């Protein structure tokens, strides 16, 4: 059977077996991954995984099963099991598929699939990562070892269909190059990495740029010292800024709100950040890593303005959390084959500001340029933020020496109200992206 | 895993969970408890098929090829707002084939066990090697394995109603703990993995690995203040897991609720270097991060670990003896046999402060010309085995826990941990504490807010000044991630005093 026929078969059969509502998700993909280290192939992996998930709702009770075995007899058995399991769970008045009139595909061009990726030969991939590693290794003689240069790609089809007549199918591709290096000086070893991941092969950062960035990020850590314990201004580089946004992203989801696990609970339409701060979740961004035509319940993707001029304007909701909170879905449903839909971000970013990164660093007399953070270290309920950190010390507006083995701490609610400069260097690299920005004061715990 | 994640990471697949194929439904897993050659009922391949696949995998040369068949069932139940909102049942079925040539690996896997797809995977893996050779596959030789977990009463075979009762008990206990508890969530999961391995040396084994995971979490509120906390348990057991007095649903639920209520009054921890007393059990996260990862032999073989070349040297204070032992009954990190068919045993990593050795898989043991240690593990058939920890813990010392705490004038007592991470090359580790107290004049006083601790592995281990006589292995559901693979582990430590760790507080 074709994939679309499989969805039709399952929906029809499950309804016949007594389900009130059904939806089916199918994922089918081809993947390859190659690691090279010190010029030799270290690992070569290939696979073509597939799977489908069946969700049944009966008397407001939900059950989900999934399989990679697409034979009819297996699917028949699975449908029976799912309907049976839906008998033992609890009735939830808010369970159910979206209203029919809400479903559909967005009318947008997304560039989510590059047919060229499937045609790249293994030899070419190997040649690319060997060259990438060579560029990084040769950049500085203090780079003495490599943790590997890697290629990965995937081409996948994602399908959602449900018993209210929705059918959506979208193809995605993804490829990435990465390099991880080690540098050594005075018996201290340091590592760092850089990578580029895109939906289109020809949009990847060029090899020289990835290799040199990985090398620079590694070498600049040499000679790191532990800073003193003190309160100072902190400049977040875009990578750590992305991590910061991901912590905010966790608590603007409807699931966090109705569970009361959010430091932004009950703050809708309040000024939660400085007026320069604007956060957007854009499911329709051209070339975006999180872009899609429909969400994982079949609602059209859209652009959601979450924080506008510092005011919290919207949470991100799927159908269930919207009903719980007496709001409307924002088209943010996301799910795996074997999990209930729940809201998630797509392409989440902080709008750029007017300052160059140099101006921001230049404005700091004595402070920290934060380049890496470690461990989750955030309490979603209180907003308390305490992270292992690495960075470069700023003295009189200039980057001076690297610092390591310390923590940065504050509370995210305070941090959002103390962002004093936002950079103009926003790039869409990760799916969650921020420009460089400065926070007026945080506690550094070191010596 | 959410679709968004898999698209982001690229190398991780979502189709790990699939349903039981029909040919398995006929056989109850109880009948398979004798193991061994009943496995063909689970995996429809003959001995001849296995040999054929190895022949295809080694057609282009290579030192060794192995086949790893896996069939796993996972079922979950989650209760929230007094409603069991969802039940899931998912099964993983597949085969991974590896060809090893020197330190190079060709790997392919398939979730379709038809002979055609199995052969295709073997052929794909063979491309790592380029010098065709004649293959002699050794005769099948079943290796002996330990018997560390009972499989005569798998949770996966128990009816849903019995599992629902356990969840409801926990939910009730959490909610009735205090009027300050305003939300309660209970999560239950059981898992059963059937494994079958065969390699070109003739080594063959099968194993059935059970697991139960139970987790409660609550949100508490007092006036304007809110907090959250939970408690997690896991073990390689059936529902008898919940008969252990410290694992009853009520005990686990109350434990989490108690922390969330206490933390309502928590204050910010003092920043900077502090004396830290690590509570018994969960603080073993520190060993896992500060020592364990750096002693996994792949990082040492590649000279990427800060412990590389330091065997025989002092890497910790004389109070520290640290072992990795996968051979304890029922623990989450225990294994009857590792994923390359080698027996787990107690490996002394550090003895009285001196580095004794690393944890190996076959590739690192061969490259470093050392014996294997039974640490070759993989997340599933989709991944090749690499050196991984099992149950990693520190042996007990001579002091009583009261003496250790009593010796501290001002410091921090760290009791429960969310987890941690480490930079293996430099050795800097970070870990997150969610239950901690101030120690003042030898007594535990004010509860402290969530805080991150940071230090350098060898430096912190040299600052261990007292170790108590209460060695404890945490019963928590620890999962270790490395190179994109997650495996279950256990951690453990006695009450331990460290003269200085940097505490990521804010109260300056």
Keywords for this structure?
heterodimer, A: 447 residues, alpha+beta, PmbA/TldD fold, seven-stranded antiparallel beta sheet, five-stranded mixed beta barrel, 9 helices, B: 508 residues, 2 domains, seven-stranded mixed beta sheet, 37% strand, globular, disordered N terminus
Please render the helix and strand layout as text.
The complex is a heterodimer of chains A (447) and B (508).
Chain A: H1 3-16, E1 21-37, E2 40-47, E3 50-58, E4 61-67, H2 72-85, H3 122-137, E5 143-162, E6 167-185, E7 188-198, H4 207-219, E8 230-236, H5 238-251, H6 254-258, E9 279-282, E10 303-308, E11 311-312, H7 319-324, E12 333-334, E13 342-343, E14 348-350, H8 357-362, E15 366-374, E16 384-395, E17 398-411, H9 412-416, E18 419-422, E19 432-433, E20 437-445
Parallel strand pairs in A: 8-15, 14-19
Antiparallel strand pairs in A: 1-2, 1-3, 1-5, 3-4, 5-6, 6-7, 8-20, 9-10, 9-14, 10-11, 12-13, 15-16, 16-17, 17-20, 18-20
Helix pairs in contact in A: 3-4
Chain B: H1 3-9, H2 22-25, H3 47-57, E1 64-80, E2 83-101, E3 104-110, H4 115-126, E4 141-142, H5 160-177, E5 181-199, E6 203-222, E7 225-235, H6 249-262, E8 272-278, H7 285-292, H8 297-301, E9 322-325, E10 346-351, E11 354-355, H9 362-368, E12 376-377, E13 386-387, E14 391-394, H10 401-406, E15 410-422, E16 428-440, E17 443-448, E18 451-456, H11 457-462, E19 464-467, E20 472-473, E21 479-482, E22 485-488, E23 490-493, E24 496-503
Helix pairs in contact in B: 3-4, 5-6
């Amino acid at each position: 059977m074709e994939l679309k026929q499989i969805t039709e078969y399952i929906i029809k059969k499950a309804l016949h077996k007594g389900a009130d509502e059904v939806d089916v998700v199918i994922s089918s993909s081809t993947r390859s991954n190659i690691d090279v280290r010190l010029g030799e192939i270290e690992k070569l992996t290939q696979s073509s995984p597939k799977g489908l998930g069946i969700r049944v709702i009966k008397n407001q009770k939900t059950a989900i099963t999934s399989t990679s075995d697409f034979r009819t007899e297996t699917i028949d058995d699975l449908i029976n099991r799912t309907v049976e399991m839906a008998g033992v769970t609890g009735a939830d008045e808010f369970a159910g598929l979206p209203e029919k009139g809400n479903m559909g595909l967005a009318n947008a061009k997304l560039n989510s699939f590059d047919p060229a990726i499937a045609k790249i030969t293994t030899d070419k991939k190997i040649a690319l990562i060997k060259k990438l590693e060579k560029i990084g290794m040769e950049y500085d003689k203090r780079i003495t070892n490599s943790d590997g240069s890697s290629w990965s790609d995937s081409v996948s089809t994602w399908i959602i269909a449900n018993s209210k007549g929705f059918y959506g199918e979208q193809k995605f591709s993804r490829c990435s190059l990465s390099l991880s290096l080690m540098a050594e000086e005075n018996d201290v070893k340091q590592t760092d990495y850089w990578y580029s991941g895109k939906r289109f092969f020809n949009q990847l950062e060029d090899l020289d740029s990835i290799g040199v960035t990985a090398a620079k990020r590694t070498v600049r850590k040499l000679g790191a010292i532990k800073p003193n314990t003190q309160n100072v201004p902190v400049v977040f580089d875009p990578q750590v800024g992305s991590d910061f946004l991901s912590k905010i992203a966790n608590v603007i989801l409807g699931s966090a709100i109705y569970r009361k696990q959010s430091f932004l609970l009950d703050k809708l339409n309040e000024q939660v950040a400085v007026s320069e701060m604007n956060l957007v979740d854009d499911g329709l961004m051209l070339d975006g890593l999180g872009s899609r035509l429909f969400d994982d319940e079949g609602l059209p993707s859209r652009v959601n303005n979450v924080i506008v001029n510092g005011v919290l304007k919207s949470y991100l909701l799927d159908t269930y959390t919207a009903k719980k909170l007496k709001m409307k879905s924002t088209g943010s449903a996301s799910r795996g084959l074997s999990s209930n839909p729940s809201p998630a971000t797509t392409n989440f970013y902080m709008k750029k500001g007017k300052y160059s990164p140099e101006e921001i660093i230049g404005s700091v007399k004595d402070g920290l340029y934060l380049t890496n953070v470690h461990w989750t270290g955030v309490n979603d309920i209180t907003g308390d933020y305490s992270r292992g950190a690495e960075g470069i010390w700023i003295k009189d507006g200039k980057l001076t020496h690297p610092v390591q083995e310390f923590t940065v701490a504050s509370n995210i609610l305070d941090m959002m109200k103390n962002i004093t400069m936002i950079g103009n260097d926003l790039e869409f690299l990760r799916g969650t992206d921020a420009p460089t920005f400065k926070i007026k004061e945080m506690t550094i715990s070191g010596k | 895993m959410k679709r968004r994640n898999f698209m982001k990471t690229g190398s991780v697949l979502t189709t790990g969970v699939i349903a039981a194929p029909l040919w398995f439904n006929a056989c109850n897993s109880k009948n398979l408890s004798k193991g061994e050659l009943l496995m063909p009922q689970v995996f429809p391949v003959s001995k001849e098929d296995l040999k054929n696949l190895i022949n295809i995998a080694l057609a282009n040369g290579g030192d060794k090829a192995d086949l790893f068949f896996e069939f796993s069932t996972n079922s979950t139940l989650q209760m929230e707002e007094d409603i069991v909102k969802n039940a899931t049942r998912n099964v993983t079925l597949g085969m991974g084939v590896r060809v090893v040539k020197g330190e190079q690996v060709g790997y392919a896997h398939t979730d379709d066990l038809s002979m055609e797809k199995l052969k295709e995977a073997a052929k794909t893996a063979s491309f790592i090697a380029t010098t065709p050779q004649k293959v002699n596959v050794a005769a099948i030789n079943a290796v002996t394995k330990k018997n560390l977990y009972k499989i005569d009463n798998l949770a996966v075979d128990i009816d849903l109603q019995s599992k629902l009762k356990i969840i409801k008990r926990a939910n009730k206990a959490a909610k009735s703990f205090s009027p300050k508890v305003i939300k309660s969530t209970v999560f239950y999961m059981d898992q059963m993995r059937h494994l079958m391995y065969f390699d070109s040396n003739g080594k063959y084994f099968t194993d059935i690995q059970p697991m139960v995971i139970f987790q409660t979490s609550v949100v508490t509120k007092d006036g304007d203040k809110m907090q959250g906390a939970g408690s997690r348990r896991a073990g390689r057991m059936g529902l008898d897991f919940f008969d252990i007095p410290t694992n009853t649903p009520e005990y686990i639920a109350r434990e989490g609720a108690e922390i969330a209520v206490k933390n309502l009054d928590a204050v910010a921890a003092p920043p900077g270097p502090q004396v830290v007393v690590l509570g018994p059990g969960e603080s073993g996260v520190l060993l896992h991060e500060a020592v364990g990862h750096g002693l996994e032999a792949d990082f040492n073989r590649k000279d990427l670990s800060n412990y590389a070349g330091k065997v025989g040297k002092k890497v910790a204070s004389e109070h520290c003896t640290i072992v990795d032992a996968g051979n304890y009954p029922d623990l989450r990190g225990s294994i009857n046999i590792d994923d390359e068919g080698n027996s787990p045993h107690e490996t002394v990593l550090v003895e009285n402060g001196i580095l004794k050795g690393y944890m190996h898989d076959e590739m690192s043991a061969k490259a470093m010309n050392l014996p294997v240690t039974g640490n070759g593990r993989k997340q599933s058939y989709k991944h090749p085995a690499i050196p991984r920890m099992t149950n990693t813990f520190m042996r007990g010392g001579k002091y009583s826990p009261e003496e250790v705490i009593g010796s501290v004038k001002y410091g921090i007592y760290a009791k429960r941990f969310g987890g941690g991470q480490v930079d293996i090359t430099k050795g800097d580790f970070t870990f997150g504490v969610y239950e901690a107290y101030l120690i003042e004049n030898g007594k535990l006083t004010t509860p402290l807010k969530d805080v991150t601790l940071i230090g350098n592995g060898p430096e912190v281990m040299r600052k261990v000044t007292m170790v108590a006589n209460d060695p404890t292995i945490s019963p928590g559901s620890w999962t270790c991630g490395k190179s994109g693979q997650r495996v279950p582990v256990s951690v453990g430590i006695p009450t331990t005093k460290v003269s200085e760790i940097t505490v990521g507080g804010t109260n300056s």
